[in-house]
UniProtKB/TrEMBL annotation, chains A, B:
This is Transcriptional regulator. It comes from the Bacteria. GO terms for molecular function: DNA-binding transcription factor activity; transcription cis-regulatory region binding. CDD domains: HTH_LacI (cd01392), PBP1_SalR (cd01545). It comes from Novosphingobium guangzhouense.
Length: 338, 338
DNA sequence: CTGAAAGCGCTTACAG
DNA sequence: CTGAAAGCGCTTACAG
């Protein structure tokens, strides 16, 4: 199958390659009739520009990178899907690059993909969006990037968030409205800045209700199902048993739920449990977990839009490229009156 | 940051660009001293070949595509991760392309990525690996591909499987060994050829045990949690209640489990439930689901190896490129004696 | 074992 | 509004 090149189109349309180039890139300064003819020929010949030739001569690759810690998680799948669909809309392609900071030499892997692939931009998911060394590598390579849920609004890059603090506050208020007073909290790992924001939201809502936080009922997990299982035990062993457990993510909430079931503690009658994330498992549990839906796909899509926007490539420091997207409370069976 | 090119390396090493090219591509016919010098200079200058220039002049892109129906599923995440890591080993990159056959014009999307990206090869996941029209597009474009779990061994492409039939047989034998006789079966959708193979395995094991299959306890689901929920109801309403339910995937098994819990049917005391897949939710449920682990990441990695193998690119019809990988039974709490 | 020349398929920068 | 020339950074095919 002979590949059709820009020359073939040009010859058939009776114009120069440059004119064809103008048409396929949507540039101005082409007479309407000529534009039409070229478009017709492109369609007839089923011509597709060679992405490599284009990248080689221009400085753009039409490739975006998604850099992520754990690409197997359900979280990663949502982020990736959002990014993928938006890339497609924009005629970009997406390359997913796992970043395993446990492994020696991970920095070289990142550099290699930046220089070998000439990425036009990168999306950095949490928690690596908070890694200063990683950000430095992108800055050195001159690759613009957008962060998803970083700890602080960056000065010279784009960022997309949801309001973790507010969301955790709403969840706490909801538990309070159900009459709960002894609300235990399972923290996420310190490496994820979102867990601190969620804890703040919880504390603020407790304080606003005039309630003291019982620090004995505040335990740190690592976002894993297993840690929810174990910390659930500790919380149910407390002298003043909590009537509700607010876990910093769904996996830990699920662990706590299983612990409750094992010990014969009825959920939600004797204990309410809620999480954060709205992962698939939160729906597959019984009772289903009350949680916060994060706009993961939407944040990723927004990140793509920012990277592709010419204005962003000119001025990454413009605050317009720092976006906050809406979350949603998902009320389900795992929470009930105190 | 001025990018380092092959000429810079050549100049500094005192050789021609062609010699540098030989060294970085690991070709023969370079004197050891010279090879060493070049390698040293490459390291000093931190030189990375420009993937686009390389692709443009050779006919290779060093890019592999993963074509998948539903890129958000846990299944997709596993397949993708396996492919990603192996691509990295092989110095290839992976591009994930969702194929939504519900959407008009999906064929053009596929063609566009094949011709625009000049993929060196493609991995096709189920169920689209069984779509003749899709395979035709790849064949027309001359892009070699490897199928994951297709219905039949292809003649002119690679393929990687697990033995769904044998695995389902083993699971059925396990249930039989626990003393179960009334074993209901929840089928998967007809669009997934694996579900037919699993059903065959179940039927064969029942037959081998001299048991007739109760066709009333054989219901078709669509692999969704919801269908497990609904079909679980029907099965528990049967006049002859089954003592075990074998669902064709974990999501449906989880649905059936929730139904049992809602109705107060104790699992596994009054009812055993098992699934197929070993998704994350199967561990987050209580009791945890007995299931079959599919070697998803391993199959994807093997697919990458096949695509990258020069022998494959010469002769796709070689039966050596049809591989069967091992599965594993995962015994957990959702199954017990009849 | 090594290199000079030509070319991959586009775009950039410049003319007209 | 349109095009001829040069070049992006490599590899292929050919010499020597």
């Amino acid at each position: 199958m002979k590949t059709v090149t820009i020359k073939d189109v040009a010859a058939r349309a009776g114009v120069s390659p440059k004119t064809v180039s103008r048409v396929i890139n949507g540039e101005d300064h082409v007479r309407p009739e000529i534009r039409e003819t070229v478009q017709r020929v492109v369609a007839e010949l089923n011509y597709r520009p060679n992405a490599f030739a284009r990248s080689l001569s221009s400085s753009r690759s039409y490739l975006l990178g998604l850099f992520i810690d754990d690409p197997v998680s359900g979280y990663a799948a949502e982020v990736q899907h959002g990014a993928l669909l938006q890339c497609r809309e924009r005629s970009y392609h997406l390359v997913v690059e796992p970043v395993d900071r446990q492994r020696a030499g991970w920095q070289d892997h990142v550099r290699a993909s930046l220089s070998g692939l000439r990425l036009d931009g990168a999306i950095l998911a949490p928690p690596i969006c908070d890694d200063a060394e990683l950000l430095g590598i992108f800055a050195d390579a001159g690759v613009p990037y957008v962060l998803i849920g970083p700890s602080y609004p960056p000065r010279d890059s784009g960022a997309v968030w949801m309001d973790d603090r507010a969301a955790a506050g709403e969840m706490t208020e909801y538990l309070l409205s159900l009459g709960h007073r002894r609300i235990a909290f399972i923290q996420g790992p310190e490496s994820h800045s979102a867990s601190a924001r969620r804890e703040e939201g919880y504390r603020a809502a407790m304080k606003a209700a005039g309630l003291a936080v019982n620090e004995d009922a505040m335990l740190r997990g690592d976002f894993s199902f297993r840690s929810g299982l174990e910390l659930g035990e500790l919380l149910l062993d407390l002298p003043e048993t909590p009537t509700a457990i607010f876990a910093c993510n769904d996996d830990m909430a699920l662990g706590a739920l299983i612990t409750a079931m094992k010990r014969g503690v009825a959920v939600p009658d004797a204990l309410s449990i809620c999480g954060f994330d709205d992962v698939a498992s939160s729906r597959a549990a019984w009772p289903q977990i009350t949680t916060i839906r994060q706009p993961n796909a939407e944040m990723a899509a927004a990140a793509v839009d920012i990277l592709v926007d010419p204005a962003f490539r000119k001025d990454c420091a413009d605050p317009a490229f720092r976006l906050m997207l809406a979350h949603a409370m998902i009320l389900r069976g795992s929470t009930g009156p105190a």
